[in-house]
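Write out the 3D structure for:
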Amino acid sequence: MLIFVAEKEDIGARLDVFLSEKGDITRSGAQKLLEEGNVCVNGNKETKKYKIKDKDEVQVILPEPRVVDAIPQDIPLDIVYEDEHIIVVNKPQGMVVHPAAGNPDGTLVNALMFHTKGKLSAINGVIRPGIVHRIDKDTSGILVVAKNDSAHLSLSEQIKDHSMTREYYCLVVGGVKEDEFTVDKPIGRDPKDRKKMLAGAKGGREAVTHFFVEKRYTGYTLLKCILETGRTHQIRAHLKSVGKAIVGDPVYGLKKDRLAEQNNIFGQLLHAKKLGFIHPASNEYVEFNSQLPQEFMCILHKLERE
């Protein structure tokens, strides 16, 4: 059984939304648990529309892991590394990591299930077999997937204790005076729009991002971003909080994004370039890199010529 205690930032959230955020599962997965009677609030059964109150204790009984939402699909994968314990992949922009409402198939999980013949960790089996961490649909780059539960637990612990190396590159609109800077602001749901995250949110979770200027262009800046924590939309929300927008970002970006419009960019120019961690089996530090996507590189070449 899992037990979640509501905090001030959670007050007013629907029960299914609360579960999806705290349990790190899809909204549809949370609703399925509710429909099957596997969720209680303070010992009582409630509907998905129940509004969370401060200090509510939500108990979740997890069913036996079953991979029911994802089917194997023969979708090409860019595999950076693979062994019997883990697989490191370079996810393209536009690909969703796991099935969810609106994206029932064609996801990274569907491709992984076909490639590994279903040999993925079962800890998140009902919804996300093998998935230890995620990157947004329109963010490209490296992530590691667990093939067994032992590897999954090891990698999850490294994410939890902030020891995993995660380095991103992004192109932002405008100049940046400092060569490097850090944004240390808690991140929580935006009370005005729960689909967004807000840096500096009251009751938000600790979030720290270190930024380094890699290259300055006329009207734009290429940044390297190193995550100390790993909150939802962390880089995008932190940049917005200091008045910066990633080119092509449909959620946190500019309403009028000239460069994105002129080059038909649909999705933020944000790429998970480097990932490093202690290998679950060898206990040795390993590190993987990926090249910036072609579309990203083309934009940089254009800016070089201006």
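The longest helix spans residues 149-160.
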